[in-house]
Amino acid sequence: MAEVQLETGIDREIDRSNMQVSDEIAIQITRMNKWFGQFHVLRDIDMTVHNGERIVVCGPSGSGKSTLIRCINRLEEHQSGQIIVDGTELTSDLKNIDRVRSEVGMVFQHFNLFPHLTILENCTLAPIWVRKVPRREAEETAMHFLEKVKIPEQANKYPGQLSGGQQQRVAIARSLCMRPRIMLFDEPTSALDPEMIKEVLDTMIQLAEEGMTMLCVTHEMGFAQAVANRVIFMDQGQIVEQNEPREFFNNPQSDRTKLFLSQILGH
Amino acid sequence: MSDTHAQTVAFVRDTMLPEREPPILERGAVKWMRENLFNGIISTALTVLSVLVVAWGVAEIGPWLMRSIWDAESLSGCRQILDGASGACWAVIKDRWHQLMFGFYPPDLYWRPVLTLILLFVALGPILFPWVPRGMIRFSAIYPFLGYFLLWGGSVWFPVSVALGFVAGYAALVAFRSLGTLVSTIAAIIAPILWWLIAAGTLTAVLDSIVPLGLERVDSDEFGGFLISLVIGFTGIGLSLPMGILLALGRQSNMILIKSVCVTFIEFIRGVPLITLLFTAQLLLGYFLPPGTSFDLILRVVIMVTFFAAAYIAEVVRGGLAALPRGQYEAADALGLDYWRAQRLIIMPQALKISIPGIVNTFIGLFKDTTLVVFIGLLDPVGLSNAIRASSDWQGIYWELFIFIGAVFFIFCFGMSRYSMYLERRLQTDHR
After folding, report:
1. Among partner residues A113, A129, A161, which is closest to B345 by beta-carbon distance?
2. Residue B67 covered by a domain
3. Cβ-defined contact of A116 to B350 (cutoff 8 Å)
């Protein structure tokens, strides 16, 4: 069988020198279950994420992949099992939740920028109010990250004046301004036009090259192959299969995974 | 061939023709009238009809206004001057304007309400307009106490010790912060209440005996006219907005007790006519309060009007909150903002912006509803117009008084309406 080659849309060599996975555990999930009413969304999830890992979570819609990563910063509450993020267990204790949230950045499908604030204010708000960084310093940090996502010139505009791709890059910069140790991406490119997907993926790859711990729910299999060190396939609330990308795409084990891959890769 | 075409080679024009004016029917006033006034048979008929109605109105009211009388001692004086013709007798306003403005407030102390009104605009500046220096907000914070002192007079230490209650609340909030939001919030509510019940009265008495400073006392029953409307209206507006916001948040709360208290309050207040609440304020509160407490009638009315408007504002703000996408809450949460910061920095600025028309609508309604206090014996402008008519000089005068009262109310309400439109334009950031 010929090796699957996926289109990444990335036309440069990826610098892997900083992409090292350490032994330290960033996220530890054990026997975690979640229900929406009667519906069992997540079943006995066990998962360990080490610092520096780049994980892509994929699966059909309704498989619970978004819910899984939303549990990690407790946008969704789990009902049994344990989630430990960066040494803090997620319980109903609000202090722990706020501590975890300030360490974990999140990028949403629909950007969720604050439309009443300028781009710069979007980026400085949380550092100023949560981290208590002085305004001047927060603005410098914000400009640094806006330059990184290549839109410093938009700093004084409002989100409504930017294109979708630009808004998503601002959303990434906004998360980075909190200097998170872990980044969660919830289908970051699903709401974008094809030509804008590339600019967002570019930013994400850049982030991976810097050694950020990332969990991405995405259907961009090219991205998965290029930067992920592990791909997790979910179906009906369970982790069906996980493997390093090369093995995952070329040698899927379960029938469900094979079916999914054949549909999504469009062969 | 004209000069313009002198150098033009056949079929290839390289000089432009000069612009010509559009035909007479397609420009200027003629075009505008054709499009807006005489655009078809129905349009033309309606235009003619409207012109006739306006002309008839002017013909009826015009002469009456043209024959305005400003100098007369009484209505019969006016009639004498008019000599049988119909004309407006504005002399009543000139004769009684001080009453319409201040009620029975002592005339030598008129400077106090006037100063209060002027300072009101100073205090509103930093709240309403971004170009006013931010430091002025401190003045806005002390204005309610200053305003009370100026209007009612009495010992200067009374408003000071009431104000200290808020300081006590803030101190409690800071002191108990380490014990969590809930504990510190409860402490911040209990501390000022304890202060007002126990310490404030004593402190006032003690300070007053050491340094007796103060203004001549004016009692509430001497208040009247637009003074009463403005005091009740502006206090009600100032208090009902924060209370309405808290009620709206309480109604969305996950805490069942807070939620049910807020829902009950809102539904009860909205389900009862304002006039009933005012009668309650006048009659029933007296029975519920401990004997011997004299609870100022204006204060009672202010409380009821505030409750009434707050219930409506709570529902308006709830509409604004419901219009916000869930993603805004999630983004605020994901950045680690706690509940109150998320509300203050992310949710409320957007929800209130959406709610501006509804909130201002409620404010305007509240301000006009202050005229209802006439039914519980307070002499607001409408009440005073009855009092003025009761005098033998002005018996039988209606139109002039009501037109004047209506005009003053209109100025304030129209001002609020224009301000809300300005605010909406200024906060327009979504560029849709």
Report:
1. A129
2. no
3. yes
The domain total for chain B is 3
* CA dihedral over A94, A99, A101, A104, signed as positive or negative: negative
- Contact in structure between B166 and B192 (CB atoms under 8 Å): yes
Structure tokens belonging to residue B162? 């009431």
B406 lies in the same domain as B320: yes
Residues of B with CB under 8 A from a CB of A: 325, 327-328, 330-331, 333-338, 341, 345-346, 349-350, 353, 427, 429-432
Are B427 and A161 inside 8 Å of each other by CB?
no
Whether residue B401 is contained in a domain is answered as yes
Q: Are B307 and B353 found together in one domain?
A: yes
| Cα of A114 vs its chain's centroid, Å | 19
Q: Are residues B347 and B418 in the same domain?
A: yes
Would you give per-residue pLDDT tens digits along chain B (432 residues)? Answer: 455 555 555 677 778 888 888 887 777 888 888 888 888 899 999 999 999 999 999 998 898 888 888 888 888 888 888 888 888 889 889 888 888 999 889 999 999 999 999 999 999 999 899 888 888 899 999 999 999 999 998 888 889 988 999 999 999 988 888 887 778 888 888 999 998 888 888 888 888 888 888 888 888 888 989 999 999 999 999 999 999 999 999 999 888 999 999 999 999 999 999 999 998 888 876 677 666 556 688 888 999 999 999 999 999 999 999 999 999 999 999 999 988 899 999 999 999 999 999 999 999 999 999 999 988 888 889 888 988 888 888 888 888 899 999 999 999 999 999 999 999 998 887 665
Task: Specify if B144 maps to a domain.
Answer: no
Give the residue among A49, A167, A82 at the shortest CA–CA distance from A119.
A167
| B227 shares a domain with B211 | no
B202, B282: one domain: no
Give CB contacts under 8 A, 24+ apart, made by A195-198: A195/A165, A196/A163, A196/A164, A196/A165, A196/A168, A197/A9, A197/A165, A198/A9, A198/A10
Spatial separation of the C-alpha atoms in residues B367 and B231, rounded to whole Å? 10
| B209 and B168 part of one domain | yes
User: Tell me, what's the ipTM?
Assistant: 0.90
Tell whether B149 is covered by a domain: no
Which range of residues forms the domain containing residue B319? 91-105+222-427
Do B195 and B237 lie in a common domain? no
Calculate how close chain B gets to A116, using CA atoms only, in Å.
6
User: Which residue among B328, B336, B432 sits closest to A126, beta carbon to beta carbon?
Assistant: B336
The beta-carbon neighbor of A158 closest among B336, B345, B429 is B429
The minimum CA-CA distance between B334 and chain A, rounded to whole Å, is 6
Domain boundary among B182, B215, B248: B215
Interchain CB distance below 8 Å, B427 and A114: no
Question: Cα distance from A167 to chain B (closest Cα, Å)?
Answer: 13
B336/A113 touch (CB, cutoff 8 Å), yes or no: no
Cα atoms in the Cβ-side hemisphere of radius 13 Å centred on A52: 12
